[in-house]
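Side project, low priority. Logging it here so it doesn't get lost.
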Amino acid sequence: MSYVDGFLIAVPKENVEAYKNLARKAGDVWKEHGALGYVECLGDDVPYGEVTSFPRAVQAKDDETVVFSWVLYKSREDRDAIVAKVMADPRLQGDEWKSIFDGKRMIYGGFKPFLEL
């Protein structure tokens, strides 16, 4: 069964195009190193909940949008090897992302699917 890394961030609306450019570059790198899939989604119907919600989770402000992303791998072992290569790839080194979004509010994690249809 596959393995998935999931990400949730808040991106200032004025930085969406810069984020899209960064995401394209990152996606190319992930795929080149063996990821099976790479998906980036801009919030479209993500209301601010009274108790919990995607925007609350990342403390999104009025001038920000929520981005939900995931990377698909063949297995956890493949994921670990691919992420090590991605993190060492010079194309993703540096602090470019810091001018686009606040990484301290990113939520991420690895998930082992239990159902795939």
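Brief comment: The chain has one domain: 3-111.
Revisit when time allows.
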